[in-house]
Structure formats: structure tokens, C-alpha cells
């Protein structure tokens, strides 16, 4: 009886070791295939096609042109949609956008609110419009 329990424990331990060894062997095999495929592709100068996927909230040109100093939060939400905003600073709203097929440069549209109205519009860390500012930036970066 005691001998069968020992055999049972030995078999359980052996199977556990065998399965972890098999798992490691399979992972090494798959890793080897992956490296071989990558090497073959690079030797033949073949690059995989990356499907361009728009990430973030796309700010349309017609809506961006309507964005102005003095708009309420509701008006901004109607034009641009819900922001990616920080729960710690409700007076700053962020809209991010990038295209994965280009340089993956993230563009940032940043709105500052004062007294529940748009006070400043910043694109890629450059002031585009600000309350009291007479000149506007001539190009749109976001």
C-alpha cells in the first residue's frame, strides 16, 4: 500500500517534469522557426505589410475649423467627441491621433478650459489659439 502511494507520487512528479520539459521544447522549436522565418525575410528584403489603422480620435478638418476660443465643453464634445482626459485635471482635455503606417508620431490636440469655456488650444505643444491672442497659427499640425 505504501509502495503504491510512493509510485503514484513518483509518477505524478515525473509527468509534471515531463510536461514542463515538453513545453520548453515546444517553445524552443517555435522560437527557432520564428527566427528562421525572420532571417529568410530579411535576406530577401521582404517586409510584412502593415495595415494602416487610425488610432485615437480622428479630428476632422471641418470640425477642427469650428473649434474656437469661448466654446463650452458641450460644444467641444459635439465637435470632437469625448476627450482622453485626466481624472486629476478636468480643465485640460486631450485628443490623441496617430497612423501606424507612417512614422507613428503621435499628434496631440490639447484644450485648456477656464470658467467652463475653451481658453487655449494647443497642437503638438505649440499654442494655436489663446484667449486674448490676436495672431493665429497659419498651419494645422493635428
Shape: elongated
Helix content percent band: 25-40%
Strand order of the largest sheet: 1-2-3-4-5
SS summary, helix count: 3
Tell me the series of helices and strands, N- to C-terminal.
Answer: HEHHEEEE
Q: Assign the CATH architecture of the largest domain.
A: 2-Layer Sandwich
N-to-C terminal Cα separation, in Å? 77 Å
Q: Which spans of ≥5 residues are poorly predicted at pLDDT below 50? A: 137-142
What percentage of the residues does DSSP assign to strands (E)?
15-25%
Please state the average pLDDT score.
78
Oligomer: single chain
Number of domains: 2
- The count of strands amounts to 5
Task: Explain what you see.
The chain has about 140 residues and is α+β, with helices and mostly antiparallel strands. It folds into two domains: about 1-50; about 55-130, Beta-lactamase Inhibitory Protein, Chain:B, domain 1. The chain has helices spanning about 1-45, 60-65, 75-80; strands spanning about 55, 90-100, 105-115, 115-125, 125-130. It has a five-stranded antiparallel β-sheet with strand order 1-2-3-4-5, covered by helices on one side. A hairpin with a 2-residue loop joins strand 3 (about 105-115) and strand 4 (about 115-125). Residues about 135-140 have low confidence and may be disordered.
Amino acid at each position: 500500500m505504501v509502495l503504491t502511494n510512493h509510485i503514484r507520487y513518483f509518477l505524478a512528479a515525473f509527468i509534471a517534469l515531463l510536461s514542463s520539459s515538453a513545453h520548453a521544447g515546444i517553445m524552443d522549436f517555435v522560437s527557432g522557426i520564428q527566427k528562421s522565418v525572420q532571417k529568410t525575410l530579411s535576406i530577401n528584403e521582404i517586409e510584412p505589410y502593415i495595415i494602416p489603422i487610425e488610432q485615437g480620435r480622428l479630428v476632422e478638418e471641418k470640425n477642427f475649423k469650428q473649434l474656437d476660443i469661448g466654446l463650452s465643453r458641450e460644444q467641444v464634445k459635439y465637435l470632437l467627441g469625448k476627450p482622453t482626459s485626466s481624472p486629476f485635471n478636468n480643465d485640460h482635455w486631450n485628443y490623441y491621433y496617430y497612423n501606424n503606417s507612417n512614422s507613428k508620431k503621435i499628434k496631440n490636440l490639447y484644450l485648456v478650459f477656464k470658467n467652463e469655456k475653451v481658453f487655449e488650444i494647443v497642437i503638438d505643444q505649440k499654442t494655436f489659439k489663446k484667449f486674448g491672442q490676436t495672431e493665429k497659427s497659419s498651419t494645422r499640425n493635428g
